[in-house]
UniProtKB/TrEMBL annotation, chain A:
This is Transmembrane channel-like protein. Belongs to the TMC family. GO terms for cellular component: plasma membrane. One of its GO terms (molecular function) is mechanosensitive monoatomic ion channel activity. InterPro entries: TMC, TMC_dom. It comes from Propithecus coquereli (Coquerel's sifaka). Its main location: membrane. Keywords: Membrane, Transmembrane, Transmembrane helix. Residues 465-575 form the TMC domain.
From TrEMBL, chain B:
It comes from the Eukaryota. One of its GO terms (molecular function) is calcium ion binding. GO terms for biological process: angiogenesis; apoptotic process; cell adhesion; cell differentiation; cell division; cellular response to growth factor stimulus; positive regulation of calcineurin-NFAT signaling cascade; positive regulation of protein localization to plasma membrane. PROSITE patterns: EF_HAND_1 (PS00018), EF_HAND_2 (PS50222). It is found in: Apical cell membrane; Cell membrane, Sarcolemma; Cell projection, Filopodium tip; Cell projection, Growth cone. The gene is CIB1. It is a lipid-anchor. Transmembrane segments: none annotated. This is Calcium and integrin-binding protein 1. Keywords: Angiogenesis, Apoptosis, Calcium, Cell adhesion, Cell cycle, Cell division, Cell membrane, Cell projection, Cytoplasm, Cytoskeleton, Differentiation, Lipoprotein, Magnesium, Membrane, Metal-binding, Myristate, Nucleus, Repeat, Spermatogenesis. Its main location: membrane. GO terms for cellular component: apical plasma membrane; centrosome; filopodium tip; growth cone; lamellipodium; nucleus; perikaryon; perinuclear region of cytoplasm. Pfam families: EF-hand_7 (PF13499). Residues 103-138, 148-183 form the EF-hand domain.
Length: 702, 191
């Protein structure tokens, strides 16, 4: 920080010098305190002592007069009374004067009065909407006790609940209602059908023992397979086919719009914060203290956290400075270690994905063995093998990532970003691998000429109704996710709290303090929502099940939080949660769109089941229905799909984007220019004030 | 006013709703909490108005004196000449500024006031050091070392002091705070 030489006269702290030298004439500080900007700053309204009033006794009436004049000038713009930083009685006086002025001005203020009424009704509706949101009080309490990061998790859970409720309502209106409007849907075609691809019997033969029926509930087979839960049940009626497709697209569009709306506010704040490195210290110090903290324990804990974080931040600065002066040899060593660590991570991920792929393929083989077919419990376990593998991988690998991250020699904040990215990739990619192996089974590896796929276009022997099979997999993933959450809570967290409360001393405290791990939990939520998005085409009632699951999860997590967890030792900033995680949610939506769109456009639908049986592809229904619309609508819709529409749209979007980027750049340059001007003006002001002091003291001496 | 049931009149309640960011329920809750018995504790026409000494106030979350900013908050919001007691309206002011719906402008204004320990209208090095000490705890083992403190204050001034005069004034403070996405959620008291 450069200081101009004329300021050497000030004391080393760099602030205003101590007030009031015992000479004739005003001192530098009293001149600077009398400036209009300082005066309006200290004004607190009529009849109230201004800020710092106790030191102003010497100047007396003249300074208060200037204060009042300066403040009146600033009040020319209409402020609502409550936004003035004055005490209550001053605001009251201001409001009364304002009301009197308005009455005095009569008709001219009618527009102002309408504007005021509009403003007030807008505020009332906003407040009304806010009270409509459920669990508002619970979220506030959680935020007060456990921090804003934890509150954001529950806020995200509430938002996803809303998404699922909307999706269920959409499903009910556009899929269930049309199904029963035109008469009850028929049963499965059974085994005796004459067509080559047409025989399909989901029901099991003969007398089914009770355990098998119970396990069928968990695996989606048996009586559940031909039920509104899965795709295969819906009859082949053209209008139902159109509404089925449209509901899927509408659901996706609504989710996209709502997520974008939610992430834009977080994005605005984070983009506004420029790059975090520029103001990280100021933010850490000024926004560090949570004024809602109550209780000795929490306050001391928060103080310890702040101390720790500040020390870590200062240390990181030294580390960065050291890193900048690394020799070539050290650089090479560090990068070698980083390459090795990344190779290790890739190897671990590859092994995990291969395991999932193998498990999905092996399931079919295992189901063929006689041992499995005789024991229904083993059948269930084999059915759940892919889910077990995915959950296991998601449980084991993230702690491994956390362990090896410090080896890379990055600063702590960057380490966390890397760990998060790797975990996100793991979660989403394991789902993708599962879907890939399913696709492999369905389409015989994409080879339409392979032996099993030749007659029907898909692997008819193993998967007579492949959409239902995909739906079943997603259903199993959902159930297993819920079971794991329950199991972790009941078998790990509660016992740990109970047992380690009895352990003596430091060991008990160390093992017993559990924290609510915000990033892990949020990624789990996003993963389940992605599963539901993929599955809602193949299993229409999945959003409804997910609503129930999230509702249960909300209360379970709340119970866990309040009875087991202590406030987090690392404050996970709410801003990160509000910006990063909606992006990951969007990524999940994009990832889930790919298999659904692929199935709609490229894989032939099953012949014995579903609303699209007999069509060459699922999408083929739409052009057929369009051709029944009037000619102009048809032309318009076909035009939307041509290149003559897409290319100009792309060009215009690129031009708009380039313009916005250029505008942002010019604003950035303007801001730095203005900052330089402010610096110069401050130097001018101090120079003039010093000259004034010098002149008045020589005048006084004469 | 006097012994018969202390209740806020409708006009006064509406006025408070108009002048603060609090909702009707919140005002009534505070009123019931602070003025349950007969004294006309809300009536400002009594001269001097009824005040609570800062140490006696439950500091909105129970009688815990651990909040390091308690004294500063009291001093900032007090309208008494000795700046050490709050009236009911001062208390409503406090809650209004710390509520959910207050504008970021007014929050940053009052935050500046609270952090300005010597009340001179700017945050100089001394103010910043005292602020950091409040944040980390006053004990010997919870302070930053002298060199760490100097480095931290240097960094803060480097980032926030636009006109390079060695202090942070209100506009610079508000400029920095406006880019901090966590400020609004941390400058909040939930009842």
């Amino acid at each position: 920080m450069e200081e101009s030489p004329s300021w050497e006269a000030w004391d080393s702290s760099g602030g205003w010098p101590a007030p009031r030298g015992a000479r004739g004439g005003p001192s530098l500080s009293s001149i600077l305190n009398g400036l209009p900007s300082a005066a309006t700053l200290r004004y607190r309204g009529p009849g109230v002592l201004p800020w710092g009033a106790l030191e102003e006794e010497e100047d007396g009436g003249s300074s208060t007069q200037t204060l009042i004049e300066a403040a009146q000038k600033e009040l020319q713009e209409p402020h609502s009374s409550r936004e003035l930083p004055w005490p209550m009685q001053a605001r009251r006086a201001h409001r009364q004067r304002h009301a009197r002025d308005q009455v005095a001005y009569g008709s001219g203020s009618r527009a102002a009065r309408w504007a005021q009424l509009l403003q007030r009704s807008k505020e009332k509706t906003k407040e009304g909407l806010r009270t409509l949101q459920p669990w508002g009080w619970t979220l506030k309490k959680i935020g007060g006790q456990f921090g804003a990061g934890t509150e954001s998790y529950f806020s995200l859970l509430r938002f996803l609940l809303l998404l699922n409720v909307l999706a269920s309502v959409l499903t009910a209106c556009m899929m269930l209602l049309p199904t029963w409007l035109e008469g009850a849907p028929p049963g499965p075609p059974g085994l005796g059908s004459s067509e080559p691809c047409g025989s399909y019997n989901p029901y099991q033969q003969g007398l089914v023992p009770f355990p098998t029926q119970l396990f069928n509930l968990f695996s989606g087979e048996g009586y559940l397979e031909w039920s509104p839960l899965f795709y295969g049940f819906y009859p082949a009626r053209p209008r139902l086919a159109v509404t089925y497709l449209c509901s899927v697209f509408a659901g996706g569009l609504i989710s996209l719009l709502l997520i974008l709306r939610r992430s834009v506010s977080g994005l605005k704040q984070t983009l506004l914060a420029e790059s975090g490195a520029l103001t990280s210290y100021s933010h850490r110090v000024f926004s560090a203290w949570d004024f809602g903290l109550c209780g000795d324990v929490h306050v001391r804990l928060r103080q310890r956290i702040i101390l720790y974080e500040l020390q870590v931040e200062l240390e990181e600065a030294t580390v960065r400075r050291q890193a900048a002066v690394r020799t070539l040899g050290q650089h090479v060593r560090v990068w070698l270690v980083r390459v090795l660590v990344n190779l290790l991570v890739v190897a671990l991920l590859g092994a995990a994905f291969y395991g999932i792929y193998w498990a999905t393929g092996y399931t079919v083989e295992l189901q063929g063995t006689s041992l499995v077919q005789q024991t229904p419990l083993l059948q269930l376990v084999v059915n759940y093998l892919p889910s077990i593998f995915i959950s296991g991988v998601n449980f084991v690998l993230p702690p491994v990532f956390t362990l090896i991250a410090p080896l890379e020699g990055y600063t702590r904040s960057r380490q966390i970003v890397f760990i998060l990215l790797r975990t996100v990739f793991l979660r989403l990619a394991s789902l993708v691998v599962l879907l890939f192996s399913l696709w492999n089974q369905i389409t015989c590896g994409g080879d339409a000429e392979a032996e099993e796929c030749q007659t029907c276009g898909y692997n008819y022997e193993e998967l007579p109704c492949w959409e239902t099979r995909v739906g079943q997999e997603m259903y199993k993933l959902l159930l297993f996710d819920l079971l794991t959450s329950l199991a972790v809570m009941l078998l790990i967290q509660f016992p740990r709290k109970l047992l380690c409360g009895l352990c003596p001393g430091a060991l008990g405290r160390l093992a017993g303090t559990q924290e609510f791990q915000v990033p892990d939990e949020v990624l789990g939520l996003i993963y389940s929502q992605t599963v539901v998005w993929v599955g809602s085409f193949f299993c229409p009632l999945l959003p409804l099940l997910n609503t129930a699951k999230f509702l249960l999860l909300f209360y379970l997590k709340k119970l866990t939080l309040f009875s087991i967890c202590s406030p987090a030792s690392r404050t996970f900033r709410a801003s990160t949660v509000n910006f990063f995680f909606p992006l990951v949610l969007l990524l999940g939506l994009a990832v889930s769109a790919v298999p659904v769109l692929y199935s709609i456009f490229l894989i032939p639908p099953s012949k014995p089941c579903g609303p699209f049986r007999g069509q060459p592809s699922i999408w083929a229904q739409i052009p057929e229905s369009i051709s029944s619309l009037p000619q102009t609508t048809q032309n318009f819709l076909f035009f939307l799909g041509t290149q003559a529409f897409a290319v100009p749209l792309l060009l215009i979007s690129s031009i708009l984007m380039a313009y916005t980027v250029a505008l942002a750049n010019s604003y950035g340059r303007l801001v730095s220019e203005l900052k330089r001007q402010i610096e110069t003006e401050a130097q001018n002001k101090v120079f003039l004030a010093q000259r004034a002091v010098a002149l008045s003291s020589t005048n006084g001496a004469l | 006013m006097g012994g018969s049931g202390s209740r806020l009149s409708k006009e006064l309640l509406a006025e408070y709703q108009d002048l603060t960011f609090l909702t009707k329920q919140e005002i009534l809750l505070q009123f019931a909490f602070l003025c349950p018995h007969s004294p006309p504790c809300w009536h400002q026409s009594t001269d001097p108005p009824w005040r609570w000494h800062c140490d006696l106030l439950p500091q909105v979350c129970g009688p815990h004196p651990a909040n390091p900013f308690k004294e500063r908050i009291c001093r900032v919001f007090s309208t008494s000449p000795t700046r050490d007691s709050l009236s009911f309206e001062d208390f409503l002011d406090l809650l209004s500024v710390f509520s959910d719906t207050a504008t970021p402008d007014i929050k940053s204004h009052y935050a500046f006031r609270i952090f300005d320990f010597d009340d001179d209208g700017t945050l100089n090095r001394e103010d910043l050091s005292r602020l950091v000490n409040c944040l980390t705890g006053e004990g010997e083992d919870t302070r930053l070392s002298v060199s760490e403190m100097k480095q931290l204050v240097d960094n803060i001034l480097e980032e926030s002091d636009i006109d390079r005069d060695g202090t942070i004034n209100l506009s610079e403070f508000q400029h920095v705070i406006s880019r901090s996405p966590d400020f609004a959620s941390s400058f909040k008291i939930v009842l």
